[in-house]
Amino acid sequence: MQADLIIVGAGMVGSTLALALEGCGLKIVVVDAGPLEVLPFDAQAAFEPRVSALSAASQRILQRVGAWPGIAARRASPYTDMRVWDGSGTGQIHFSAEAVHAEVLGHIVENRVVQDALLEALQARGSVELIAGARLERLQRGDEGWLLSLADGQQLRTPLLVAADGAHSAVRRLAGCETREWDYLHQAIVTSVRCAEPHQRTAWQRFTDDGPLAFLPLERDGDRHWCSIVWSVTEDEAHRLMALDDETFRAALGRTFEQRLGTVLEVDPRLCIPLRQRHAKRYVQPGLALIGDAAHTIHPLAGQGVNLGLLDAAVLAEVLEAALARGESPADLRVLSRFERRRMPHNLAMMAAMEGFERLFQADPLPLRWLRNAGLKAVESLPEAKALFVRQALGLSGDLPELARA
Predict the structure, then answer these.
(1) For the chain (length 406 residues), average pLDDT per consecutive 10?
(2) Distance (Å, whole) CA 35 – CA 33
(3) CA angle 351, 339, 12 (to 5 degrees)
(4) Cα–chain-centroid distance for residue 274?
(5) Residue 57's closest CA among 353, 339, 397?
(6) Which CA distances in Å does 274 have to 231, 270, 300, 315?
């Protein structure tokens, strides 16, 4: 099979790119190892453990590619405030949407909900070919572009290949793309919990000596007592916590969270995810681009990973459409380098900021403890500084693609 563009990975980022380019005149094929089935949504079902904190910029992108109605029809939990504090000191800070005249800071959405809404939109339009159960085994580059060999024997050819196949990208590995990566020696425990008190549509984050603990607000049929938790701890502590029975785990979680929402009454099954930072040295080669987690993975400290990936997709779509309008080949390295120049500095800056926060809040020396508490207090006393942070998080500033602009 021959295509003008093959996207490997039909996850949130790959599907968004396909929808953003739909109708641009290219024959687009999306291949994925999964079944690519949209299952009926049960509004009473338990929350999926893996969620994303979608920014306003991400919401605009998903609206403009036609996926947001499907998300809203399923389940999305808006939040208007964020409260962050240092568990080892007195520093704290409060961010609010009201400070920048916005209705919400973002939405907490289960990854499965976003994925299904995107697949639903792709299937409804029908102009992008989807190949399910397609595991990439070999990748070869020739004069005419890329030859993809799948596990079932099928072969695909394309001048332009986009890797959107996640942190353990087969495309990145087979194409020989180099990365810089390191292990945080931490793991994140994720699950959903029901608390005695409502979450007040607030995202809560406490920095502990082991790592950050986030309670992210979830909503089901008007019930605001549920939260998604992301608890970053050392590997040994993760093993200990995962071995606890539910009652003992709930008690430990409540103590660590300082009972800000009262007693933790229920806990869903837990997942434990190793934390590793990874960044490709280049996002592009001739006829190849890496986007989303295939290009960069980030500490889940502020829930920015998927937002960076959606911006990657929107910028790449914008660059490719502009190249087509000018009569340029979208597979040309000069074209793809425009995408890299726009996205790499932003992604590196966000990764550096998250790395700095992570190191600062795990630092034991007394001067650094004093510094971080003084910093939180200083920012809390400066409305302008807080508003600047909120506008950046919302995606209201910076080099935004057209799909993300207000």
Answers:
(1) 97 98 96 95 94 95 98 97 81 85 93 97 95 97 94 97 97 97 88 98 90 94 95 95 98 97 98 92 98 90 81 98 98 98 90 59 50 55 63 74 93
(2) 7
(3) 65
(4) 16
(5) 397
(6) 12, 13, 11, 29
Q: Which of 85, 2, 24 is nearest to 323 (CA)?
A: 24
User: What is the separation of C-alpha 110 from the centre of its chain, rounded to a whole number of angstroms?
Assistant: 11
Domains and CATH numbers, the chain: 5-38+45-181+276-404 (3.50.50.60)
175: number of Cβ within 10 Å = 18
The type of residue at 262 is: G
Rg (C-alpha) for the chain, rounded Å, is 21
Do the Cβ atoms of 248 and 275 come closer than 8 Å?
no
Identify whether the C-beta of residue 66 lies closer than 8 Å to the C-beta of residue 357: no
pTM above 0.85, yes or no: yes
As a whole number of angstroms, the distance between CA 62 and CA 46 comes to 24
Q: What angle do CA 384, 390, 395 make, to 5 degrees?
A: 130
Query: How confident is the model at residue 1, as a pLDDT?
Result: 93
Q: What is the pLDDT of residue 359?
A: 54
